[in-house]
Amino acid sequence: MWRYVMGFSAWVALFVVGLNVVASDRLRPFDPEEQLSMASITPGFDQHIAQGFSQQFGDVRGTLFHLQTDNCNCNSSNRSHQGSLNALVANKGFRSVAISPEQLPEAAHALTAAPALIVFDQQGELAYLGPYASGLSCGTATSLVDTLVKQIADNQHLGSAVITEAQGCYCALPSTVI
Hints:
Layout: H1 2-26, E1 27-29, H2 35-40, H3 45-57, E2 63-67, H4 75-90, E3 95-99, E4 113-114, E5 116-120, E6 126-130, H5 146-153, E7 161-162, E8 167-169, E9 171-172
Parallel strand pairs: 2-3, 6-7
Antiparallel strand pairs: 1-8, 2-5, 4-9, 5-6
């Protein structure tokens, strides 16, 4: 009996160690160098981002920009979240645009991780910039944006929100973009 207890204890210990290895490999800060955090507190940041996206993509009013990088293992868990956000705002006249890091306007180069969401309200003003969610899966269960995007679509938000302090499944953007 004692051998079974020891064997089970060893199995549990190995499982916990393995889980920690997987978690530490996937759980990263969204803004590790605080570049976005520092940029977002500068005067005119919101307008600078809106202007940069407008120059790059034209009319940004009522637009969700979904930023993803190639070969990022976080994309798969994020796809369903993108779909649910798109469905949430589809009947409100919003559009959805998938972009790559190479398409980011220079104004947004303080953004160093993906997947990320950039939302402009019906007036074309920056309403949200940051991660979709936190946690290992970064899915809808740990969403940071669902309620906020609904408020933006219903024109009930109070200015822009830039979220930088999150831990989750994020990939660094290519250094050629930053």
